[in-house]
Amino acid sequence: MVGVELTYKEELEKRVSWQLDQATLKEIMIPSFNHTCSTLLDVELVMRLVKRFVGLDEGVRSSAALIKVAKLMDSYLAEVAMDSNLKLEEFIQLAGALPAHARAIDDGLYRAVDTYLKAHIKVTKQERKLLCRLIDCRKLSPEACLHASQNERLPVRAVVQVLFTEQNKISRQLDWSGPMSMARSPNSNRHDAPGRCQSKREVSVQHMEIKRLKEDVVRLQNQITTLQNQLEKVVEKKKGFFRWKKFILISGSTSVTDVGKRDFEEVGFGRHTPLTKGKNSHRWRKSLS
């Protein structure tokens, strides 16, 4: 829309934002014709559309429409993340433009973050932490958690958090599927109709499922312990490095003359050798003769 007045442009963006939940990924992948934008796609335009959509009244914008827009933005983020000219601030702003409750599952957002890390290999450790803060580990599916636990591009602390969250999920499943959860109270048999007895096959399947979940818990605990040990080793190495550096600085501050003077005093030369010329020194030389 080159040469269009600003008022008409804003009115058109406003109307598009009202129907953003009905748009497709292909429709919002608009090329950038602005010379100030360094990316291939017009990220600034999509950002304005999302902000206008979020700012709509709840009567106009339903929760179902918000979920659709969240899925659309996750797909758009995964596409635009491959652009090497996309800045980290733009990615974070676009990912955080929607409220947290708009995403029931963060698998799409995790895929977009992983794509950004693949395309931008020069991202620093601190920037990786900022990207991982966008993801809620509690909203990741088991498949996404498994991928994240083996993802070398993520920081170690983020991987530990994913494993810890998955361990809590499995522990809750064990609590819910335990034998006590299916036990009936003594008074319930008097009023409720007797339930169907489970067959041996069903009982064996449940036991196998519980056994598998317990093995998963043990495996996750071992992985968490290994990662924690690695973190402790890294911290100890850093502490040892700074301790040696401090020792070198302190020892290096001692002057050479002080060291020489101390050495001479220890061997006894400084206490007996006369330092002034005069009668005392002359007598001392005669006594030696």
TrEMBL record:
<feature type="region of interest" description="Disordered">
    <location>
        <begin position="177"/>
        <end position="197"/>
    </location>
</feature>
<dbReference type="GO" id="GO:0016567">
    <property type="term" value="P:protein ubiquitination"/>
</dbReference>
<protein>
    <recommendedName>
        <fullName>NPH3 domain-containing protein</fullName>
    </recommendedName>
</protein>
<keyword id="KW-0833">Ubl conjugation pathway</keyword>
<feature type="coiled-coil region">
    <location>
        <begin position="203"/>
        <end position="237"/>
    </location>
</feature>
<feature type="domain" description="NPH3">
    <location>
        <begin position="1"/>
        <end position="169"/>
    </location>
</feature>
<keyword id="KW-0175">Coiled coil</keyword>
<dbReference type="InterPro" id="IPR027356">
    <property type="entry name" value="NPH3_dom"/>
</dbReference>
<dbReference type="Pfam" id="PF03000">
    <property type="entry name" value="NPH3"/>
</dbReference>
<dbReference type="InterPro" id="IPR043454">
    <property type="entry name" value="NPH3/RPT2-like"/>
</dbReference>
<comment type="similarity">
    <text>Belongs to the NPH3 family.</text>
</comment>
